[in-house]
Amino acid sequence: MKNRILLISLLFVFYNFNAQVGINTVSPTATLEITAKNSTGTSATTEGLLIPRVDRQRAQSMTAIPVSTLIYVNDFSSGTPTGNAVNIDNNGYYYYDGTVWMKLNTNIYNSNGTLTENRVVTQNGNTLAFEGTSVNAFSVDGTTLSVDAASNRVGVGTNAPAQGLDIEGTARLSQSVAANTPIRLPGTTKPLYVNSTDGTVTHAPIGFTRVSGGFRPSIPFTIATLPVTNTIIRVRFVCHVDQSDETNNSDTANYAYGDFTIVGTGTADPIRFRDVNIKNFDGTAKTLITNTPTTITWSNGSTISGNPTITLNQTTGEFRMNAGTVALSYFFEMLGGS
Fold it and tell me: What 3-state class would DSSP assign to 53?
């Protein structure tokens, strides 16, 4: 008993004179220093520091908690993740920051977080790489910028880019006209144009003049393949149905010419024939066997079999002509845009 009292007295005196306490050491170098009895070797004796173990409800119930209090939550199923326990969603070490219990092992790779002020990453000569395999593997504010690592695509204004670079909205290259010379960027179906005032990049409608013609045997042939929407084209044509020789050149019924318009405004109103005018050699109107939004047919009115037919596919955009079983000489001129 005397020995114990003496030990406690000596410890108290040591604390008062040194303001430091050592466990397993006679020369502590901090307010409290705990030294392992066996810091090396194969001893099976457990050594370490046991922090108070409580469940979430107990931690949540504490009041007047000093800042830096350390606990170990061994059961996070009790209580609720509210109030000062809002961050307690798993077992582990927590410290009190003056308002709530904070995880001791939180990091940016397994927990979400919020910046409280600006941060700068100085790379110097080091690289910073993000490796992913999913769609929208890296994004900024939802759709502002999105990287599709699965298909190697980048989206601006979309988180599901369909091309290598997919921009949903307007784009700008530069406000300097000199920096954008030439202001036309070719090489695409619809060339891109840079606004010389504000640098906005847009695509211009396709405007074209096209002539298709020649001599064709008795098979359907494609004159052109057209956009099925947002299209307007004025078509003029001449044609002559014959038998691949000169025996029927004087048969006036085999000659025809005319014009019509192809218009398509949207998915509910795809391309179709409008304002159809087909004439005989003498300028009188030909009698049309078929005159629908997708088919125009007229009779040769001669001894040659087969009636010329012009068709329009509203799904594929194919603009075709067929003369049945006979040959056909033709020329089509198209003026329009889409």
Answer: strand
Residues 280 and 283: their CA atoms lie apart, in Å, by 5
Which residues sit opposite 54 in a β-bridge?
73
Contacts of 116 by beta carbon, 8 Å cutoff, 6+ apart = none
With beta carbons less than 8 A apart as the criterion, state whether 330 and 319 touch: no
Closest CA to 335 of 228, 250, 233: 233
Query: In this predicted model, what pLDDT tens digit does every residue of 264-278 receive, in sequence order?
Result: 998 888 999 999 999
How many angstroms separate the CA atoms of 86 and 291, rounded? Answer: 74
Long-range contacts, 14-21 (Cβ 8 Å, 24+) = none
**Cα Rg of the chain, angstroms:** 42
- Answer yes or no: are the C-beta atoms of 320 and 300 closer than 8 Å: no
Number of domains in the chain: 4
Same domain assignment for residues 157 and 276: no
Query: Do 259 and 162 share a domain, yes or no?
Result: no
Domain of residue 58, residue span: 53-103
pTM attached to this predicted model: 0.43
Q: Is 249 domain-assigned?
A: yes
**Cβ neighbours around 142 below 10 Å, total:** 11
Residue scoring higher pLDDT (215 or 153): 153
8 Å CB contact between 251 and 302: yes
